[in-house]
Amino acid sequence: MKLGSNIAAVVTGGASGLGEAVVRKLAAAGVKVAIFDMNAERGEQVAKEVGGVFCRVDVQSDESVDAGFASAREAHGQERILINCAGISKGMKTASRDRKSGEIRSFPSADFDRVLQINLVGTFRCLARSAAGMLGLEPLEYGERGVIVNTASVAAQDGQVGQAAYSASKAGVVGMTLPIARDLASEGIRINTILPGLFATPMMAGLPENVQQSLAVSVPFPARLGLPEEYADLVEFMATNGYINGESVRLDGAIRLAPR
């Protein structure tokens, strides 16, 4: 698919981090971009800077997602590109013992479910609705109607201590990629997933500097944190290369996460 002003895109989680980098990359290529996010202040600012539109969307809600797509399509028309970057992380061991009190506790089911609802079900909720909208588009070259890119994590394959919920949610995103690609193949809609490693995002910036440095040097090569722009570069490649479909690709500097 060739990017340009005749193409509309939706980016979930587009107000910051990897999602923001994608918004800026697509907008720089002339694409009309709608940002789905819960952070209205930051989302409005980014949308203003790139000439896009912001929609406050909770990916856990059918009604919120439907309203977001309605607003985005009213502004830009039916999107041909959907990038799913919205997600959260909740770290806690499945069962553990407090070192001081000796109290035994388990990972709350409600917290586990919330991670899955946002990272996995929210991703599916958005892509299913976007794909349904794409079905009404006229096909482009080689019959292509649209493309979807999801965000998983290297934790989908080598999750660390305390990442059971996060890893399960991201492994689910990876696991559904090929079946969905097969579901949508006859309609000319492609879907791929990126598994980012350690990236310089606002979440990472919240860690102490020494921790960030330790994580950076753990990457085989290059021994640094990934740049959000590098993630956006891969998104652009997946959007424009019509022969990549049903793939889940690690973007991680060859790192394999240690147990902790």
UniProtKB/TrEMBL annotation:
One of its GO terms (molecular function) is 2,3-dihydroxy-2,3-dihydro-p-cumate dehydrogenase activity. It catalyses: (2R,3S)-2,3-dihydroxy-2,3-dihydro-p-cumate + NAD(+) = 2,3-dihydroxy-p-cumate + NADH + H(+). It comes from the Bacteria. Coiled coil: none annotated. Pfam families: adh_short. Keywords: Oxidoreductase. It is an enzyme of class 1 (oxidoreductase). InterPro entries: NAD(P)-bd_dom_sf, Sc_DH/Rdtase_CS, SDR_fam. Pathway: Aromatic compound metabolism; p-cumate degradation; acetaldehyde and pyruvate from p-cumate: step 2/7. Transmembrane segments: none annotated. Its EC number is 1.3.1.58. The keyword Oxidoreductase applies. Belongs to the short-chain dehydrogenases/reductases (SDR) family. PANTHER family: 17-BETA-HYDROXYSTEROID DEHYDROGENASE 14-RELATED, SHORT-CHAIN DEHYDROGENASE/REDUCTASE. This is 2,3-dihydroxy-2,3-dihydro-p-cumate dehydrogenase. It comes from Stutzerimonas stutzeri (Pseudomonas stutzeri).
